[in-house]
Specification:
Layout: E1 2-9, H1 15-23, H2 27-35, E2 39-45, E3 50-57, H3 60-68, H4 71-80
Antiparallel strand pairs: 1-3, 2-3
Protein name: L-rhamnose mutarotase
Organism: Streptomyces kebangsaanensis
Pfam family, one: rhaM
């Protein structure tokens, strides 16, 4: 099982909206995340907009590709893209670059 951690930056003027969107994640999106192999998925948001994501999956690239093929993901990415800084033309899910794990206490 791969443990994947990534960072994104939510625009400070969109933090409240971003929190609200995640208080009621669409059931179809939840189902797609699970069906495409993401487990134990968490997002943590600092008051300055730093977003830390964590998930576990058998194959991160396969999970990413599976989500990319869903209609619900396309709608979600279009909806949330304006909330992020520094995407350089990428969708938020494309900007999720895994950090290198340097320590894990099992």
């Amino acid at each position: 099982m791969q443990r994947v951690c990534f960072l994104l930056k939510v625009r400070e003027d969109r933090i409240a909206e971003y929190r609200e969107r995640h208080a009621a994640v669409w059931p179809g999106l939840r189902a797609a995340l699970t069906a495409t192999g993401r487990h134990n998925y968490s997002l943590f948001l600092r008051d300055d907009g730093l977003l830390v994501g964590y998930l576990e999956t058998e194959d991160f690239e396969a999970a990413r590709a599976g989500m990319e093929a869903t209609e619900v993901n396309a709608r979600r990415q279009a909806e949330t893209a304006p909330s992020f800084e520094s995407l350089d033309g990428a969708r938020p899910d494309e900007a999720m670059k895994p950090l290198t794990e340097v320590f894990h206490l099992a």
